[in-house]
Amino acid sequence: MDIKKIDALISLLDDSDTEVINVVTDNLLKEGIEAIPQLEKVWETTPDEKLQERLENVIHNIQFETTKSNLKRWCSGDYSYIFEGACYLAQIQFPEINFEKLDAEIDKIKEDIWLEINNNLTALEKVKILNYVIFDLHKFTRNTNNFYSPQNSFINQVLETKRGNPISLAIIYMSVAYKLDLPIYGVNLPKNFILAYKDEFRQYDSPNEIEDILFYINPYNKGAVLGKREIDYFIKQQQLKPEGSYYIPCNNKDIIIRLINNLTLAYEKLGFTEKTDRLNELLRIL
Fold this sequence. Notes:
Elements: H1 3-11, H2 18-31, H3 36-45, H4 49-76, H5 82-90, H6 99-114, H7 123-137, E1 141-142, H8 155-161, E2 163-164, H9 166-179, E3 184-187, E4 194-198, E5 213-218, E6 224-226, H10 228-237, H11 252-270, H12 273-285
Parallel strand pairs: 1-2
Antiparallel strand pairs: 3-4, 4-5, 5-6
Helix pairs in contact: 2-4, 3-4, 4-5, 5-11, 6-9, 11-12
């Protein structure tokens, strides 16, 4: 990063010529996320409100373009690791977060489970260990006091506070399971989000995918194990029209889409329309 170049560009942001401002803004956007610390430094020290506003616009644009670029790359490649997509989404608000550093925290949880788990255990026994380590040892829990807070949808905040909503807690659970090679996948159940444990010893998938599922897991209730009957009851209780997709795994893109929708709802409740517009643009990419 050329700090002198960035500082020189920033110094031109208070120019009165709109064309100059546009050219400078475009060049700062090209510098990308590495320019943000310098932009924030100037924002904190300048008394000029107009300059502060321009600096904010540049910072927000860089954050958004970085998020958009990373999510595009994730979607066009192998998007089997859901945690990566969730981290890229979080960069829209926290550009400084580092995927490798956050992923190391998932590795720590995985290591604690790996010490206790072995291939001789049944699927239920393995899940019991996951539940103990994730919810009792590492203290992850649901955020009932502030359910609609945006922080519940930012995976770095969930890792830090140990509190989340159904989908963010499921992403933590899925990510640990992925590293342990356990066949645990997300199920896009309305008004909740659950996981399915597929039969890992079947040689062939059944035409009816529900038959491949041993049981379901509810991360929002400390990993409670559910059968199909409980899902049937929940759907009836919520007065939902039964759909086959409520019982079978969805893909990771669908999970990130739902995470964005949760974040959009949170910002709508706070009246942040500019943020919801950008989230809608991300949905169009996905």
